């Protein structure tokens, strides 16, 4: 597919997304890699724009250059954002709020600390990303290093094989300690995410280097 045709598909999908005002979002495409520029009013809209682009199956990569510009009437000072973020983390039953710390600079939240599982790391980010006044989130929460089972690689391969949509046969898995490296090729972002989710569910995994290509 030509880049100009893919750009039209992406623009149509952005317009189709109900939680996004795409009037000020610019789209460029080069070799099936999409770059989004321009600006939106909320971080939630920026995330919605990225999700919309990833739904277009011909897209091979996404670069997010969108700026978040809250209207002056909706701007919130950093102290209030930090307080709301800490409270939001405390209210989550699936994450250890006491192990996570929050800092805010000009509306940008940085999360630190450590947790046992990746799902807890992601839950912490979800808990703060939609707060009023937030313009971005950097998630620096680490996954604690724990003992890895001797058959970790085999467990991962078996988990991928159980998920037919993950196209396990086209993915190579290398394991060193708690670090996992993935390579190969799948048809869509959805398949790639299924694979990553399966890997992170394995006990002892502390990092995943995903080099899987889309195509």
UniProtKB/TrEMBL annotation:
Xref: Gene3D superfamilies: 3.30.1340.30
Q: Which UniProt keywords apply?
A: Aminotransferase, Signal, Transferase
Tell me the Pfam families matching this sequence.
BON (PF04972)
Please state every residue range assigned to the domain named BON: 2-70, 77-145, 148-215
Q: Which domain of life is it from?
A: Bacteria
Its source organism is Marinicauda salina
List where the protein spans the membrane. none
Ribonucleoprotein listed as a keyword: no
Query: What is the name attached to this protein's record?
Result: Ornithine aminotransferase
Q: Name one GO molecular function term.
A: transaminase activity
